[in-house]
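The records we work with from here on pair a chain with its fold. Each token is a code from a learned vocabulary of local backbone shapes. A record is reproduced here so that you can trace the correspondence yourselves:

_____
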Amino acid sequence: MSTASARLPEGRYGRSSDERADRKLKVAGAVLGAVLLALVGYFAYHYVVENKISAQVIAFDATDSAVKVHLEVHKDSGTSGYCTLRSQAADGSEVGRADFRFTGSATRIDKVVTLRTTAKGTTAELLGCHIG
């Protein structure tokens, strides 16, 4: 009769070094994913909450040398800043760009501003508003 081997079959019991490495990579990936998610959340929060000036173009009227833009601005009381507007011609070239400042304690400003252009503008586009 033959005797049974006292040695266990290889790879059947316990973790191999490849399995341990896979587990470490999964843990590292989960940690990096959580950090990335936290960073995206942080920047999104500051973009939405900390932006104290928002605006929209209500209407515009273009002539050969200017565009009159009806702009509605919402801001915190006492916050001052500016909004950047631009106008483009029918072919897509930029014909005018300007910053318009807003100050004071009013939280809602409804104003018609005049954007001078080098040719007839066909658009009035709000590029953004900034504190400053």
About this structure: The mean pLDDT is 87. Helices lie at 17-49. The longest strand covers residues 53-62.
